[in-house]
C-alpha cells in the first residue's frame, strides 16, 4: 500500500505510469506532472478505469474512501462511470426543476378561470416562493413546508396557510407523477396545524335582507358595484358569476342568462331565468357598458371584469362584513325559498348545485326552467317588499 510520502515523491516520466495502492486503486503520474487517482475494476468481464480526482486535492485517505464506494457499486453490478453520468444528469435536472417552475407548470394545467389562477399564483409568490421557490423540488423537506405554514398562521392568516398547504401538496403530487420528485413532503405535516374552521354566515332574515339591500343601494359607492350586488341577489348567482358577467351571455328578449361552462364551478352550462327587475337592471346598464365585453368592467382596465373583492370592500365600509358575506346570498335565498314552499329540486337547479345522487345526476336533465321563472319572480318581488318594509321601519 502507498504512503503519502511516496505519493508526494513520485516524479513524472516520459510516459504515464501508475503506482498501485490496494484493490485496484492506483496513483497515475502523467508526463506533465499531474497525479490522478484511478480505480481499475472489472464488470461483465470487461476492465475499465474510474477517475477519482487529482492528488493532492484528493488525499490518499479520501481516494481510498472513494474507491471503496466505487467497489460497492461494482459489487452491486453498477458501473461507477455510468452511475456518475446519471447522477450528473439528475443534478442538472434537479437544478432546473425548482418548486417555482413546477408550480407554474401545475397551475397552467389546471382547468380554472384565469382570475383563479392569478389569485393562486399571487398567494404562492407572497407565501411560498420566498422560502422554497428556487429550491430543487427533490430537496424540499417536511421541515420546509412546516416552517411556511407556521409563519403564515403566526401572522394571523390560517385560511391562507390552509390554501398554501393544499397548493403545495398539489404541486408535489404533480412532481411525483412526472418523476421529478419521490414523495410529497406536505403529507407528514398535513395535520401539524389545527384545522381551519370556515365560519359560514347564517341565512339573513327578511328584515335583515331589506336593510342590507337598502344600505347597499344608498352607500354612495361605485354605480357598477351596486348593480353587480343587485344582480347577484336578483338571480342568486355566485359573486364571481355576477361580477364577471358578459353581455353576450344575456338574451334580454327571452329574459335568460346563459352562463357558459367555463365560468361555472361545476363546469356545466347554467341557464338562469331573469326576473323583470333583473332585465330592467341590465337594460339600464347597457347604455353605460354595452360597448364593452363585460357588464361590469374593471374601473382601471375595461378589458377585464371588476373584482368581486369590490363587493366585500363595500360591505366592510357599511359594517356588514361580520354578519354577511356575498356567498351568504345563496344561503339566504335557499333558506327563504324553502320556507316559501318551493320544491328543493327547483331551488337546487337555480343554485346550480350538483345532484349528489349519481343515478339522478345521470338521468335527471330537467332544469325546471318554467318553475324557476315563477319562483325567481316571486323571490325578487319578496326582496322589493322587504326593502320597502325596512325603509318604513327606519323612517
Number of distinct helices: 16
Overall residue-averaged pLDDT value: 89
Could you give the distance between the termini? 105 Å
Q: What is the 3D form?
A: rod-shaped
Number of self-contained structural domains: 3
CATH H-level superfamily title of the largest domain: Intergrase catalytic core
Query: Which percent band covers the strand fraction?
Result: 5-15%
* Side-by-side strand order of the widest sheet: 1-2-3-4
Q: What order do the SSEs take from the amino end to the carboxyl end, as H and E?
A: HEEEEHHHHHHHHHEEEHHHHHH
Give a verbal description of the structure.
With 395 residues, the chain is of the alpha+beta class. It has three domains: 4-92, Double Stranded RNA Binding Domain; 99-189, Orthogonal Bundle (DNA polymerase, domain 1); 206-394, hpI Integrase, Chain A, CATH 1.10.443. The protein is built from 16 helices and seven strands. The strands form two sheets. Strands 1-2-3-4 form a four-stranded antiparallel β-sheet, covered by helices on one side. The chain has a three-stranded antiparallel β-sheet with strand order 5-6-7. A hairpin with a 2-residue loop joins strand 3 and strand 4. Helix 4 packs antiparallel against helix 5, helix 4 (99-109) packs across helix 7 (158-177) and helix 8 (206-217) crosses helix 16 (369-394). The protein is rod-shaped. The relative contact order is 0.07. Residues 358-365 have low confidence and may be disordered. Belongs to the 'phage' integrase family. Residues 97-176 form the Core-binding (CB) domain.
Amino acid at each position: 500500500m502507498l504512503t503519502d510520502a511516496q505519493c508526494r515523491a513520485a516524479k513524472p516520466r516520459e510516459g504515464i505510469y501508475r503506482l498501485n495502492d490496494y484493490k485496484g486503486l492506483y496513483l497515475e503520474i502523467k508526463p506533465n506532472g499531474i497525479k490522478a487517482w484511478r480505480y481499475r475494476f472489472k464488470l461483465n468481464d470487461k476492465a475499465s478505469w474510474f477517475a477519482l480526482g487529482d492528488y493532492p486535492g484528493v488525499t490518499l485517505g479520501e481516494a481510498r474512501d472513494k474507491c471503496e464506494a466505487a467497489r460497492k457499486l461494482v459489487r452491486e453490478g453498477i458501473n461507477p462511470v455510468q452511475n456518475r453520468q446519471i447522477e450528473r444528469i439528475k443534478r442538472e435536472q434537479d437544478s432546473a426543476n425548482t418548486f417555482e417552475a413546477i408550480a407554474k407548470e401545475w397551475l397552467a394545467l389546471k382547468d380554472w378561470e384565469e382570475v383563479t389562477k392569478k389569485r393562486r399564483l399571487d398567494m404562492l409568490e407572497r407565501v411560498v416562493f420566498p422560502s422554497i421557490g428556487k429550491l430543487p423540488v427533490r430537496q424540499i423537506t417536511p421541515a420546509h413546508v412546516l416552517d411556511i405554514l407556521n409563519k403564515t398562521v403566526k401572522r394571523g392568516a390560517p385560511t391562507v396557510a390552509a390554501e398554501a398547504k393544499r397548493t403545495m401538496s398539489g404541486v408535489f403530487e404533480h412532481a411525483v407523477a412526472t418523476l421529478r420528485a419521490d414523495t410529497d413532503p406536505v403529507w407528514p405535516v398535513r395535520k401539524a396545524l389545527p384545522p381551519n374552521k370556515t365560519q359560514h354566515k347564517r341565512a339573513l332574515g327578511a328584515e335583515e335582507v331589506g336593510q342590507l339591500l337598502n344600505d347597499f343601494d344608498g352607500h354612495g359607492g361605485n354605480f357598477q358595484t351596486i348593480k353587480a350586488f343587485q344582480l347577484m341577489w336578483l338571480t342568486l348567482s355566485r359573486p364571481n358569476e355576477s361580477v364577471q358577467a358578459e353581455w353576450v351571455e344575456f338574451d334580454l328578449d327571452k329574459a335568460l342568462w346563459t352562463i357558459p361552462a367555463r365560468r361555472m364551478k361545476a363546469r356545466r352550462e347554467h341557464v338562469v331565468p331573469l326576473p323583470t327587475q333583473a332585465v330592467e337592471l341590465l337594460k339600464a346598464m347597457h347604455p353605460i357598458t354595452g360597448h364593452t365585453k363585460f357588464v361590469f368592467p374593471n374601473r382601471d382596465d375595461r378589458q377585464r371584469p371588476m373584482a368581486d373583492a369590490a363587493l366585500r370592500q363595500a360591505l366592510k365600509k357599511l359594517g356588514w362584513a361580520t354578519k354577511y358575506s356575498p356567498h351568504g346570498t345563496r344561503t339566504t335565498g335557499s333558506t327563504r325559498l324553502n320556507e316559501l314552499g318551493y320544491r328543493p329540486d327547483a331551488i337546487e337547479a337555480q343554485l346550480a348545485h350538483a345532484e349528489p345522487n349519481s343515478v339522478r345526476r345521470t338521468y335527471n336533465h330537467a332544469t325546471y326552467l318554467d318553475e324557476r321563472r315563477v319562483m325567481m319572480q316571486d323571490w325578487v318581488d319578496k326582496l322589493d317588499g322587504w326593502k320597502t318594509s325596512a325603509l318604513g321601519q327606519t323612517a
